[in-house]
Amino acid sequence: MLNIPVPMRDGVNLSADIWLPPSSQGNGPWPALLLRTIYDNQEARYIGWAREFTNRGYAVIMQDCR
Do the beta carbons of residue 37 and residue 65 sit within 8 Å? Predict the structure, then answer.
């Protein structure tokens, strides 16, 4: 999992966690899902979703909203 700050045009950085499929799925490119939440993106349910989708060959980007 990578944590990337994504700059908005007003200078605020929103945190985005990027989950990639395991190396057994190849080197990409992969289809991607963007999930945005006003809640803590480190909640167990979101991590579970990311793992499930990456195991199915998707890249997952979870981004905090304002």
Answer: yes
Beta-strand relationship, 59-64 and 32-37: parallel
- In this predicted model, what pLDDT tens digit does every residue of 1-18 receive, in sequence order? 889 999 999 999 988 999
Identify any residues that bridge with 35 across adjacent strands, giving them in sequence order.
62
pTM, entire model:
0.79
Show the 3-state SS of the chain: CEEEEEECCCCCEEEEEEECCCHHHCCCCCCEEEEEECCCCCCHHHHHHHHHHHHCCCEEEEEECC
Q: Could you state, in order of their start, the residue ranges of all structural domains in the chain?
A: 2-64
Q: Is the dihedral of CA 26, 28, 34, 40 positive or negative?
A: positive
